[in-house]
Design a protein that fits this description.
The chain is an alpha+beta fold and about 400 residues long. It contains nine helices and 17 strands.
């Protein structure tokens, strides 16, 4: 989708900024590269380029001579440089008349997902008398907001993930009732086949984690280091994918079972806490959307963690409450985080994200993960919520 310069300029006016300066070197700023239309595989981007969208007037760019056509699809004049002295002069002209610009920068690197501009480039801009502010909400508005087609693709992906999750638990239950053990890796590979059948793609096979491995949030089984799914242990499935079509966005879910007829007391108690934390976070988002109130990512994380800490689990929290969803599973919108980072970006209408509190122990872990979409006047969970740990019926 072409960058809507007129809409960007309206947003800059509302934010009282002189411009938005996009910059990239050799893929160092994938946000800028995507906004500029350089991520379709048809452009070589090995040299520095800049593109300034001013609040008023025509955009202008700076591009290297051997890649002079990279910004041709964008409006405005382009200055072509070859040597470093020409670049220095071009950057001075580019920034003439502006005093405050947005860039992919986060003060103190509070939001590292956004902080893509290197310190030296920031120095070069500031040396020309220009103040840099964060482009966080601009990035959300013009890169992380979903179209109606993307929302539909997310819902289709979510429905497929829930079917795959059900099949995986059924396969685990059948194996537990039979003579041969099923390993985490074998079940993961079955799930990968089901992804292909459902028309889903992903950047990774699913997490299939049994027993103590469920206590590792990013555990992935491997052929030579995979545990058997054993009776009475927790089995955690985390799966994410999107439709294999241009512009599709991800869905990402986590569900938990026990390989037995009853759920042990400790996993049951821990799961109740994460489910309550999830629902407290979702309720906060829903209430703010209905009231039209701005809500920041850190506020939602804090609401979820307050539940977990109140239940006595402060030392069992290892990660934030949720992340943005987009064309990558970790999108460029706001994350629900006041734990690993302090994400003060607003949850904008049209954005999607996960809510996924978890608790992790030496012998098991539990996590529940849902997806939410913030609409114009409401916020909705885009799939069913797990209310209690599933039992798989063995022994």
């Amino acid at each position: 989708m072409p960058l809507d310069v007129a809409a960007v300029q309206r947003a800059l006016g509302e934010l009282r900024l002189d411009g938005w300066l996009l910059y990239d070197f050799h893929g160092s700023n994938p946000i800028a590269a995507k906004l500029a239309g350089l991520t379709d595989g048809t452009h070589v981007t090995t040299r520095r380029w800049y593109y300034l969208i001013p609040a008023v007037g025509e955009p202008r760019g700076v591009v290297h001579a051997i890649e002079r056509h990279n910004l041709d699809a964008l409006p405005g004049d382009k200055t072509v440089y070859a040597d470093r002295r020409q670049l220095d002069q071009a950057l001075t002209r580019l920034l003439g008349g502006v005093s405050r610009v947005a860039m992919e920068y986060s003060p103190g690197c509070a939001i590292p997902y956004l902080s893509r501009v290197d310190a030296g480039t920031a120095d070069a801009v500031r040396q020309r008398g220009v103040e840099i502010v964060s482009s966080g909400d601009l990035v959300q508005q013009f890169e992380a907001v979903w179209s109606a087609a993307q929302l539909a693709s997310h819902r289709a992906a979510a429905e497929a993930l829930y079917r795959i999750k059900d099949r995986a638990f059924e396969a685990a239950a059948a194996a537990l009732a039979g003579p041969a053990a099923l390993t985490e890796y074998a079940l993961q590979q079955q799930m990968a086949d089901w992804f292909r059948q459902e028309g889903l793609v992903s950047d990774s096979p699913p997490v299939v984690a049994s027993g103590r491995n469920a206590g590792n949030p990013h555990y992935l089984p491997a052929p030579d280091s995979s545990s058997a799914i054993r009776p009475d242990e927790v089995l955690l499935l985390d799966l994410w994918g999107k439709r294999a079509e241009t512009g599709a966005v991800f869905a990402d879910i986590t569900w938990v079972a026990v390989a037995g007829r009853t759920v042990p007391s400790e996993p049951a108690r821990a799961f109740r806490a994460v489910a309550e934390a999830r629902d407290a976070a979702a309720a906060l988002v829903e209430d703010a959307a209905r009231a039209g109130r701005d809500l920041r990512g850190w506020e939602v994380d804090r609401a979820a963690r307050a539940v977990l800490e109140g239940a006595g689990y402060a030392d069992r929290i290892l990660h934030r409450t949720g992340h943005s969803l987009g064309e990558q599973v970790h999108g460029n919108g706001v994350h629900l985080d006041d734990y690993e980072t302090h994400d003060d970006r607003r949850i904008l209408p049209g954005t999607g994200f996960t809510i996924e509190p978890g608790l992790y122990f030496e012998t098991f872990g539990v996590r529940t993960e849902i997806n939410m979409f913030r609409g114009a006047c409401d916020a909705v969970v885009t799939g069913p919520r797990q209310m209690e740990i599933i039992t798989l019926g063995s022994s």
